[in-house]
Amino acid sequence: MQGMFLTQKLIRLGRVLDRVRGSHHVLKHPQRKDVLTIPHPKKNLGNGLVIAICRQAEAQKRSCATQL
């Protein structure tokens, strides 16, 4: 899964794009202080990294990582 697709899915699930630093997109939760960093939007991310980001986002695996 490419980083941009994961970023778009997390935005649809309620995250807000806070900033972009180089090749990393930083998403934050609108009500809590936690942030997620998604690396390399045009490169494929490993399955373990996608699962870890979804787990950190507290999203269900079906809604977050459906293309694994």
From TrEMBL:
The keyword Nuclease applies. The keyword Hydrolase applies. Pfam families: HicA_toxin. It comes from the Bacteria. InterPro entries: HicA_mRNA_interferase, HicA_sf. GO terms for molecular function: endonuclease activity; hydrolase activity; mRNA binding. Keywords: Endonuclease, Hydrolase, Nuclease, RNA-binding, Stress response, Toxin-antitoxin system. Belongs to the HicA mRNA interferase family. This is YcfA family protein. It comes from Komagataeibacter europaeus NBRC 3261.
